[in-house]
Amino acid sequence: MKRLFTLLSICGVLLSTGAFAQTDITPSRYRFTDQPTGAFSIDKTYSGWNVPASDADVVNHWNNGFISASNPDFPIQLAGGFTGNAATYNSCFQVFDMGGQVGKVLMIKGGASEFPYGVAGTSGGFNAGHSLNFYTHKDHTTAIATGVANGLSEEEAKKQATVRMRLVFHMHQNVLNTATDNGILGYSYTNDHKVDEFGAIQDVKYKSGDFADVVFDEETEEEVLSYNPNKWIAVEYDHVANEEDGMPLRFAFRMKWGQIQNATLLIKEISFTANPTGAPVEREELTLVSNVSTSISPVLQKESLDCYGAEGQLVINNVNSGEQVMVYSLAGQLVNSSIAQENQFSIPMSKGIYIVKVGVKTGKVVIQ
Description:
By secondary structure, the protein is mainly beta. Helices cover 11% and strands 37% of the residues. It has helices spanning 2-16, 57-60, 84-90, 144-149, 154-160, and strands spanning 23-24, 38-39, 44-47, 67-71, 77-78, 93-97, 104-109, 130-135, 162-173, 182-187, 204-206, 212-217, 222-227, 231-240, 250-255, 263-274, 284-287, 307-310, 313-316, 324-329, 334-339, 345-348, 352-358, 361-367. Strands 1, 2, 6, 7, 9, 14, 16 and 17 form an eight-stranded antiparallel beta sheet that branches. A seven-stranded mixed beta sheet has the order 5-3-4-8-15-10-11, with no helix packed on it. The radius of gyration is 24 Å and the shape is elongated.
């Protein structure tokens, strides 16, 4: 009898202190390894940098998950009725099997991306930044106030209300970006998010240059970044439901200034865990090898471009009329995009060092 009383006492303590087991609450549609390969559709587009608060469509049009995207150039539309820039963006999505340690991924491939696998989306359209959003199911959200009302301490209730997102992803960009930081962060249903003591958003930063190694270029005798197809990043992010029960959380994958047009994102894993144990791994580099060869470099190309600088002009030889000429800073920022009008084409440029791309050809130019 004494032993039974002790066991019951222990159970009572566990219940009163909110000893909840961590639970996988990942919607089935986010398990890309179980999805058929081919085209994949998001659920809604919004006009603006961020999505509106408390959008009822997240609940009313739940489809074993809810994925939305926002951009100032997008119309407000639901899946099945995408037009214009919404249709252009949605055409970039597909499930693709990379094989090996990578397996199936959600691939978002821009219309001008040179990544050698998957189907590129429709070219053109939006230029501003965008946010790609993944929601949790409303029934898997327990608010802090509910835990407190059930007898938990504030700290215990906060743990019960915590959801951890884990994201494993990879990014390829035609010219590696080392300057522009994109962000990953969590939001509540009413768009509440983490901020630091100064009010700045607390997000996890990333850019395409993170998926590269520093190598020595014998031709230019300089250290440059070279794309590494086996480098992946894992991010874990905890967010708390501080509103009433039944309000889904949103985790945003944000990209600035229309970079998706010349980039490809690969998402291997996006998972959600309620009542997570231990501290989140904010950022971790992983080595994952596919069974396909991605032996290309966005900076060091085998085929060089005939170009040079002359008195404030960038001059390109042996181009075809109508070809697109893309000029980037060494930091990876697109600074000029022009259409060649003749075999020898020139562009006025300020002093600096630039990377020039025409098709698969790349050149490096110093403008004095």
